[in-house]
Amino acid sequence: MRQLLLDVVPSATPTLANFLPGRNAELVCLLQHILSSQEEERFFYLWGGLGCGKSHLLQAIVREYSQRDLKAVYIACESHTDFDIDSEIDCIAVDDVDRLDASAQIKLFNLYNQIRDEGVSLLLVSGQAAPAYLALRQDLVTRLGWGLVYHIHELTEAEKMQAMKSHAANCGFDLPQEICVYLLRHVRRDLPSLIDIIDALNRYSLSNKRQITIPLLRKLLQGTS
Fold first, then answer.
1. pLDDT at position 11, please?
2. pLDDT above 60 for 4
3. 6 burial class (0-12, 13-18, 19+ CB within 10 angstroms)?
4. What CATH number belongs to 3-8+155-222?
5. Phi then psi dihedrals of residue 59, to 5 deg
6. Residue 225 — very low, low, confident or very high, per pLDDT cuts 50/70/90?
C-alpha cells in the first residue's frame, strides 16, 4: 500500500470502552475490577495471536491508571529491553514478552521477584502463546504463570464485519457487505488495520466524489488515482 494508506488518521486511543470484547467479556470484566480495586491479584498474563487486542488492553489499563494520577508504564518489548523501574510505580504493562533476549529475561524475572516481595505494583504481561509454550527461561515461564492467565480470543469474521460496519456508521456512511468480505480476504485481518483502511477508503471516496465500491477499494489498495 502506498502513501494514501500510509497517511491514515491515527487510530483512536486504546481504552476499555472502545475494545470490542467478543468472546473476551470475562477478561474485560476482570480488568474493570482491577481498575475499581476489586481484584487482589497482582500478576496477569494475557496471550493471543497478532491482532487479538493484547497491546490495546495493556495500553488501555496504563492510560486509566495515568488518568487517575497513578504511576504507570507501558513497555513494548525488544530483545534488549531494560526493566529498571521505579519501585513506587503502581502499574507495569510488559507487551510481547516473547521478544526478550536472555539478558532481558533475567531482568524481567528479577522484576517479578521485586513485585512479589514489595506487594505494591500491578504487573500485566502479554505474549503470543501460553507460558508453557514460550521459548523463554524456565524460571521466567514459571513466573509468568504465577497469577491469572487469560487467552485473548480473536474476533470472528462476523464480529469483525459488524465492527467495521459499526465504525463506518459512526463516521456517517454505510459500508457495503462486499467491502467487508473483500478486506477480510485481501488485507491484514487485525481490526486496527481494517479500521485504518476503512477510514482511508472513506476519505478517498469523498476526495474523488465516488461511491464506495470494490473497484474504488482496489484502486486505493494499489495506490492509483
1. 62
2. no
3. exposed
4. 1.10.8.60
5. -65, -35
6. very low
2 backbone dihedrals φ, ψ, rounded to 5°? -100, -155
pLDDT exceeds cutoff 60 at 180:
yes
For the sheet containing 122-127, what is the strand order?
A: 72-76, 91-95, 122-127, 43-47, 148-151
Report the pLDDT value the prediction gives residue 124, as an integer from 0 to 100: 98
Second-level CATH architecture of 25-151: 3-Layer(aba) Sandwich (3.40)
Give this prediction's pTM. 0.83
pLDDT band at 51 (very low <50, low <70, confident <90, very high): confident
CB 198 within 8 A of CB 164: yes
Contact 80, 104 (CB under 8 A): yes
Q: Which of 48, 50, 46 is nearest to 60 (CA)?
A: 46
Q: In terms of C-beta distances under 8 Å and separation of at least 24 residues, what long-range contacts does 195-200 make, across chains too?
A: 195/11, 195/163, 195/164, 195/167, 196/5, 196/8, 196/9, 196/11, 197/5, 197/8, 197/221, 198/164, 198/167, 198/168, 199/8, 199/9, 199/171, 200/4, 200/5, 200/8
The C-alpha cell that represents 6 in the structure block: 500510509
Query: Of 13, 2, 20, whose CA–CA distance to 165 is shortest?
Result: 20
Taking the domains of the chain in order of start, what are their residue ranges?
3-8+155-222, 25-151
